[in-house]
Design a protein that fits this description.
The chain has 403 residues and is of the alpha+beta class. The protein is built from 14 helices and twelve strands.
Amino acid sequence: MSEPDDKKPPSKRQQRQAIDATQIYTTPATADDLAFIAREFILCTLPHSDPGDVLFWSRTNGNLTLGIQAGVNKKTGKSYGIPYGIIPRLILVWMVTEIIRTKSRRLELGNRLADFLLTLGLDPSRGGKCSDARRAREQMERLLHSIISFNSFLKAEGRSGYTEENIQVAPRMVLWWGDKDPEQAALFGSWIEVSEEFFKAVMNSPSPLDIRVLRHIKDSSLGIDLYTILNREAFRAMKDDKPYFLAWEWLHEQTGNDYKRLCDFRRDALVQIEAILTVHPGLIVKQQKPARGRKSGLVISNLSTPSIPANLAREPIQRGTNQTPPALALVPLPPPPPEKFHKAATVAQFKAMYTRLDPYSCKAAFDAWAEGLPPEKQPRHYDAAFKGFAQKWIVGKLIVSNP
């Protein structure tokens, strides 16, 4: 008699997420899926949880320190608080994306921000004590009134010093809220004007993101941070044609020093990385275990590709402001039917060796990688090159289930 299966069946929400993940994984990103974040907010991230009633908060990564000074409500004399968690991260992505789209410091809120939050599965129109509208309003006020500082320590030729830049997020703004329901984010007619320093930081180093991936992992601020980091490292590894190593200690310092124990951070980070891998076909990452003279961490393969192709990411940065931008898509387009391999035996061999994984998902990652190669390095024998690629790709996709 077989043993009873005690594993609970997936919920409807989990089933829906699995379907969405498959669709994202197998469908190439388009201009409708494009979003951006500034490089500085990848190198140092916001706090995950509420720091409490403090006027200043900081996080250090190597020689770079991110500091956030809370704004003060001029009417009440009380602090707005430090922005934290999921909502300000998503609002920052929207702000950076709008700056890239409009090439303007003035950002109209109204439908633009509401549509963006809806795209990510949040509802800014629904009020209530624990509503998305209330969270969005509170975190927006915390973020927009804060002053963000970046401090870099310098050392050379027996001297030491530092550079510091203090950036006021939005020195000018008009924000409207609903009178009947003060928790409702009635943003029609609202606008903000970001500072010149914030504008320059965004235009100097925007990093492209796939909004579909953000929607899939939006329930975790740690997941959002890890996606922005791993996606950037995938781009660097592809561009430099060499793998990059990320030590767990460095990742903890950069994104998770809210965790007191490194082992707790690593455990939760692996859960989020597993979710990212289900929607990021170009990411190939494996764990490196500690050894003599070697730290434990993650290795990003040079066969990795970012979730947004470079040519797609460059277009809105170079586009003039007189062109109409693409609208954010609420529902991704259905995936096109996958192309067949040259040999049916290639599919059969893949399925026999890797029973849990889809050969066409691997093929999508292989095609994205091959497209980035110069003409002289394009694979001459498709199936043979695919098999070699699959041997490395499969390691990255089993990283979490077989640590």
